[in-house]
Each structure stands twice: as structure tokens, then as C-alpha cells.
Amino acid sequence: MNLSPEDRAIPGAVPADVPRADAILRAEKLEKNYATHAGPLPVLHGLDLQLVRGEMLALVGPSGCGKSTLLHLLAALDTPTSGAVYFENEELHAFSSAKLAEFRNRRIGFVWQRHHLLADFTAEENAAFPLLLRGLGMTQALAAAREGLEQVGLADRFRHRAAELSGGEQQRVAVARALSGQPCLLFADEPTGDLDEDTAESVFVLLRKLHAERRLTSVLATHNLSLAQSCDRVLRLERGQLLPSRPAAPRPALGGRGERTTG
Question: What CATH code is carried by the domain that includes residue 64?
């Protein structure tokens, strides 16, 4: 979905005609401190955010500003010092351990900067892991994994070990793995940070394509402002707060050279 310039200018904003109750995920007054020898290190300061169902949000900011911390809190991979995260108006950290594990497995897809694939396992085996953890049989899990790998352009790499794939191919396997469980929320933490420029753009184009085809709600953390500007909304994390992003320099639309899908 596309937000108006007015909506883009408001930190954490959603379109005026979308009621708060319709936000698929929201954070309220998030605080996160880390314990250090010198005392608590504050990272997030009373941060508020609402995600509209179907939007693609980019988070930008310098290294160490807390982008990864925020993604982990939104994905229920970490707990806030105070404040709360709500999925469809249910507070995540009020969930039981079993319900929280089910939320992570069924609702969330997460792509890290470093793909975290198992080097000695094949592409299809790596992509099948979330389904195996869910209790799906090996045959069904591998079939679903192959379908996902086809979508990311790796139909000829099913049985290649992760260590035999290029960096761009490994990240595509990581994307297939994140989406194998048919989540509704996708989080990507610097998903192109370890890739060269052309491969990074092709992976970003792929994420956009899958976001639209699967009707995802997506949050991407990135240093690349020009790639971020192709998202529906861009927010900058600075001093623990979300601020309007500084505009990027004009650039051709992603995929303008034929939307490369290999890398």
C-alpha cells in the first residue's frame, strides 16, 4: 500500500482512515535497556509504532542505533524492559510459552543479514526446517521447501549444499526458509548488507515481489536509503525514537533494468 506524504512525515504514523484496531502489529511505549558493567545502557526510549496490514516499512539508521533490537522485540525474539507489543490487539508477552513459540513459527518470518544456513545441509533441507519444527513430515516439508525455492529462483539448486551456493543464492534460501511456514509478518535485518550492489538490488526486488504476492506485512532494517525509499514508508531510528527519514537522492525504480532475479 502507498501512504500519503503527510503520513510518511509522521513518526510511526498510519493513514488517517485506518483505525488503531486495524493495525496488525503495534508497539506502545517500548523501552529497552541492556545491562553493562557501567550500568544500564538504554537503546529504545518510549517508542511507539503501528504497522498497517499489507504495508512494507523500512527502518533506517546508523549501526548501533537499535534497529535489530526493535525488530527482535516486534518479532517476539526478545522482551522489552517496559512497554508492550500487540499482534492483532493481543499482547505478545502475555502469551504462554507454547503460544509464543507457535506465534514465532506460524506468524513470523525472519531474514538475518548473515543467512545462518547449515553449510552441510542442502538448500531444500535448510528451507524445510521451520516446517519440521512445526511437526510436518519430511516429505511434506521438503515439497513445500522446493516450492518456496522455486519462487526465489533456485529451482535448479534444491540439492546443492549451502556451502556450494553463492552469497546471493544463500540469502535467497534464507528468504525461502523465512517464508516456508506461510507467515503473515516478515522481518528482514539488513538482508542485503553482505551482498554486492547488483546482488543486493536483486534480493530487494525479490523481497518486494514476494511481499506483494503473499500479501505480507513487512519490516526491513537497512543502511541503504535508496533501496529503503522503494518501500511504502521509511522511518529513521535515532536516539531510541522513530523519526521521519531524510529523503534519498532520486534514483531509477528498482528493477528498471529488467528486475534481475538471480544473484
Answer: 3.40.50.300
Domain count, the chain: 1
255 belongs to a structural domain: no
DSSP string, 192-235: TTTS-HHHHHHHHHHHHHHHHHTT-EEEEE-S-HHHHTTSSEEE
Q: What per-residue string of b and e applies to 230-243 under the rule 16 or more CB within 10 Å gives b?
A: bbbbbbbbeebbbe
Tally Cβ neighbours within 10 Å of residue 209: 16
In a domain, 256, yes or no: no
Strand-pairing partners, residue 234, are 58
Q: What is the DSSP letter of 134?
A: H
pLDDT single digits (tens) 46-83: 999 999 999 999 999 888 889 999 999 999 999 999 99
The answer to whether 33 touches 41, Cβ cutoff 8 Å, is yes
Contacts of 117 (CB under 8 A, 6+ apart): 126, 162, 170, 173, 174, 177
**What's the Rg (C-alpha) of the chain?**
18
pTM for the full model? 0.83
The burial of 203, by beta-carbon neighbours within 10 Å (0-12 exposed, 13-18 middle, 19 or more buried), is given as buried
Q: Which of 143, 163, 184 is nearest to 54 (CA)?
A: 184
- Is there a contact between 207 and 175 (Cβ–Cβ < 8 Å)? yes
pLDDT value of residue 11: 41
Q: Dihedral through CA 209, CA 215, CA 221, CA 223, nearest 10?
A: 30
Q: CA 115 to CA 124: how far, in whole Å?
A: 14
